[in-house]
Design brief:
By secondary structure, the protein is mainly α. It has two domains: 52-274 and 381-439, Citrate Synthase, domain 1, CATH 1.10.580.10; 275-380, Cytochrome P450-Terp, domain 2 (Cytochrome p450-Terp, domain 2, Orthogonal Bundle). The chain is 61% helix and 2% strand. The chain contains 20 helices and two strands. A hairpin with a 3-residue loop joins strand 1 and strand 2 (61-64). The longest helix is centred in the middle third of the chain and has 27 residues, at 166-192. The relative contact order is 0.14. Bound molecules: carboxymethyldethia coenzyme *A.
Length: 439
């Protein structure tokens, strides 16, 4: 058994026993109330699932296994001559609850390189699609097409014990994550570079190799990719992409089917697609104003015109966060170190000064601050990756690590089919009437 799998099995076996006895003793304890406004309001704040790999605090932002993003930057192993963390280290941490050593992370880079061969039929499936098919559509189709290789589906068909579910799930998660950079880079090169593909370089780490296959030959871009793939990986379980993977996975759909489900959620403009919408909105503003250096007043006018047209300001607001997103701040820090002269970065920073007071002034927006998607496009444009319809695929490659690490945990802890209760408005009216009578 490989060292990561062995560590995971030890930890998961212990936690499964602990959770079982905790539920025996405390299973009836109440952990929250649900208000009618939450039932109609997208279930905000309803505690309804367990997600081991990360937890989100409204003010502090995300913590992965208890560590904030700045802490991870200090603690996770790095590639040679790079100051950003290796995403492999975060995956190890999410799966085992332990900060890995340099040696463990190098093992994982090599292991993913070994597992990274994409089936030939996936390239054929992609080649059958028009190159102008949205990259997220291509990504989702490519992921499902690889399901032919699912260990879980095969073992389930053969009749596996439920106590073994975690094992082929781990194998599928590792294989799928290993293959995603190749698939994602293939989509980019076929859609935007006439199908001139770049072969993988197996001596590179997971993020460095992805950067190299995209065709951006720049060491700082590799550093950006390592940071980007680390910070987008997980955001606790209730966000739409994670929750979709969790829900689909709870039916015992395998990692391929479940991840595709999550990617289809990520492709919505209120979620991951917001990263393309942000830069599209900024480009549109610069074109409308006829300048690449707008004043704050000009930006404010454009923001107000967007709101007056009944649209949201992409990259701002969040369902849980109530402060600037630490993932935004991590990208801002990167931009300050590597790209302080970039004109598009300067525009994003000015937008950051202008938008929050305007949104605050509307009196209804719960969080006027930027989220993760507000900054990423400016970094990518600065390195020449300007084709913004591709941006959500980058997010998706990263998100796979968090949701699939959790899927290993969900299988190991024996989580059941997810099946919450829904009600009709007629039921709500009758319930309210009964409550009124009973006083
Ligand atoms: N611009 C304009 N209006 C906004 C807004 C924004 N950025 N964010 C929230 N609002 C509005 C809502 O549309 C809602 O208006 P109505 O009452 O008229 O319907 C009101 O403010 C209250 O919304 P909220 O409770 O503050 O926010 P929600 O939890 O409902 O929604 C989110 C959260 C992210 C969907 C919303 O802030 C938004 O649409 N933001 C822009 C899209 C975006 O950046 N999404 C990416 C989020 C991060 C990610 O998942 O990748």
């Amino acid at each position: 058994m490989d060292p990561l799998k062995q560590k995971f099995q030890e930890k998961a076996t212990a936690l499964r026993t602990e959770v079982k006895s905790m539920l025996k003793e405390h299973g009836n304890k109440v952990v929250g109330d649900v208000k009618l406004s939450q039932v109609y309001g997208g279930m905000r704040g309803v505690k309804s699932m367990v997600w081991e790999t990360s937890q989100l605090d409204a003010k502090e932002g995300i913590r992965f296994r208890g560590y904030s993003i700045p802490e991870l930057r200090d603690l996770l192993p790095q590639a040679k001559d790079c100051k950003e963390p290796l995403p492999e280290g975060l995956f190890w941490l999410m799966l085992t609850d332990e900060i890995p050593t340099q040696e463990q992370v190098e093992w994982l880079s090599a292991e993913w390189a070994k597992r990274s061969t994409v089936p030939e039929h996936t390239f054929k499936v992609l080649d059958a699609l028009s190159p102008d098919t949205h990259p997220m559509t291509q990504f989702s189709i490519a992921i499902v097409s690889m399901q032919t290789d699912s260990n879980f589906a095969r073992r389930y068909a053969e009749g596996m014990s439920k106590y073994d579910y975690w094992d082929p799930t781990y194998e599928d998660a590792m294989n799928l994550i290993a293959r995603l950079p190749r698939v994602a880079a293939y989509i980019y090169r076929r859609s935007h570079h006439g199908g001139k593909h770049i072969e993988p370089n197996e001596s590179l780490d997971w993020g460095g190799n992805y950067a190299s296959m995209l065709g951006i030959d720049n060491e700082d871009f590799k550093s950006l990719m390592r940071l980007y793939l680390t910070i987008h990986a997980d955001h606790e379980g209730g966000n739409a992409s994670a929750h979709s993977v969790h829900l689909t996975g709870s039916t015992l759909s395998d990692c391929y089917m479940s991840l595709a489900s999550g990617m289809n959620s990520l492709a919505g403009p209120l979620h991951g697609l917001a990263n393309q919408e942000v830069i599209k909105w900024v480009f549109n503003m610069l074109e409308t104003l006829g300048t690449d250096d707008p004043t704050k007043e000009q930006i404010a006018d454009h923001v107000n015109a967007t709101l007056a047209a009944g649209k949201v300001i992409p990259g701002y607001g969040h369902a849980v966060l109530r402060e600037p997103d630490p993932r935004f701040m991590a990208q801002k820090r990167f931009a300050g170190e590597y790209l302080a002269d970039s004109q598009i970065v300067k525009v994003i920073w000015k937008v950051f000064e202008v938008v929050p007071p305007i949104l605050q002034g509307l009196g209804k927006v719960k969080n006027p601050w930027p989220n993760v998607d507000a900054h990423s496009g400016a970094l990518l444009v600065s390195y020449g990756l300007k084709e913004y319809s591709y941006y959500t695929v980058l997010f998706g490659v990263s998100r796979a690590m968090g949701v699939l690490a959790q899927m290993c945990w969900s299988r190991a802890l024996g989580f059941p089919l997810e099946r919450p209760k829904s009600v009709t408005t007629k039921w709500v009216k009758e319930y309210l009437a009964e409550q009124a009578v009973s006083g």
